[in-house]
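OP here, attaching both records as promised.
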Amino acid sequence: MQSNVMIDPIPLTEKPNPQPEPEAGLTRGRRPDWLRVKINQNDEYWKLKRLMRSQTLHTVCEEALCPNLGECWGRGTATFLLMGDTCTRSCRFCNIKTGRPAALDEEEPLRVAQSVKEMSLRHCVLTSVDRDELPDGGAHIFANTIREIRRLQPGCTIEVLIPDFRANRPALQLVMDTHPEILNHNVETAPRLYRQVRPQARYTWSLSVLQMAKEMDPQAFTKTGFMVGLGEQWDEMLHMMDDLRSVNVDILTIGQYLQPTKKHLPIERYVHPDEFKKLAEEGYARGFKWVESGPLVRSSYHADGQARMITPRGDA
């Protein structure tokens, strides 16, 4: 298979499923009660914050203003953000800053692994900014980090939430050769909205990455997610689920889009929790092994719970 393989989206059925009644959610306005979060700043929260600062590490929890930061940090879990805090892309939903990134820190994988060991993690999540200026998109940093974690914290299961690498097969192969237990890459939104939401990305690139990952390592679980509240239609969400199952994706996350600042895309609709339940039912009916669907769900939400259905892969 060529490195730039593309996948045509599955065509919609002639009779698309009807969208739930409008009263299931709210249009723009005051944030509803089900999206109000109380930050949990317990001892584990402050311990993790001190550790990240001492190791000069970044977390996507902080950079992306995740609403679950308090809950996850309070449980002693976090998602490490590799390759700095500056992204080469300018997705209009994301709070991570855009610009010219600093040079790669090749020692970062070791520091991350040391932190994983110090926290005694049984499961960790690694993600990164997009580094389109690099020939491999930074794939070797993911690979080296996985190897260091395997060396210093044997038995820790690893999830990687990777960029699309522009569907570059050799770059993805670098990551898959280290055998992460879960390979996560988010499609984020419906294909129709990509130009508005993810102008430098392609839906077909994302599907291609998920398909190639499963082909490279059939034992790895593949995972993806998308946001709601950006103007997507009910039939488009089901269409995405069908596309994802066609490339054998195992785990799906669905959450409410929340506008980080007034400069970002506005929220078109607050989706009611009952609609999230219906989406979960549709996902399970299509064969996903695990579906996290709820207003506050993000890519790494309850990732430690999803890891219970897997066993460590051993040395890479």
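Record two, same layout:
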Amino acid sequence: MPIWFAYTLIVLLIITSILLTMLILLHRGKGGGLSSMFGGGVSSSLAGSSVAEKNLDRYTVLVGIIWFACIVGLGLWLRLQLNA
């Protein structure tokens, strides 16, 4: 595989790492977390979590899956390069 593939995965890994860190920090914890600073803790439905919190969960899972795929892709690329 070409070297640009590895560089693309590394850039994507850095971007998703930063995004994942920010998304995790925005989640509401027991003490309210950083999400309450931006208005996430103001509205809550009777079901327990607001629509914004559910969307935040979805985005966090999506970015986490992309992050994991980048790690696996880099590992496979490195394995192919060492065997070649």
